[in-house]
Design a protein that fits this description.
Alpha-Beta Plaits, 6 strands, four-stranded antiparallel β-sheet, alpha+beta, about 25% strand, single chain
Length: about 90
């Protein structure tokens, strides 16, 4: 997939934090190992960049919140951090 800035949800912060519907989602680039399980679960939310780190694409709002949370749970190193609208961390708990 083309990862030009035009396809990114937030070109200035490709790994977040980004607001996706009611969730605030961040990929911790120091933890991300490029396993791509997040992409397998939520292909409209993530792609890997040139460093094999997950970044958010502009189709992310098309995913359900449940799918985004499931994608974070699927990450083998818990590199995806999710907060709700109140700023409370939803995952990892």
């Amino acid at each position: 997939m083309d990862t030009t800035s035009a396809n990114l949800l937030d070109p200035k912060n490709p790994s977040g934090p980004v607001k996706i519907n009611k969730l605030r989602v961040t990929v911790d680039r120091n933890l991300c190992i490029g396993a791509a399980t997040c992409i397998a679960v939520a292909p409209k939310t993530y792609v890997l960049d040139s460093e094999a780190k997950a970044i958010f694409i502009n189709t992310a709002p098309e995913e359900t919140e449940e799918t985004i949370i499931d994608s974070a749970k699927a990450c083998p190193v818990a590199a995806i951090i999710i907060q709700n609208e109140a700023g409370q961390q939803v995952f990892p708990a």
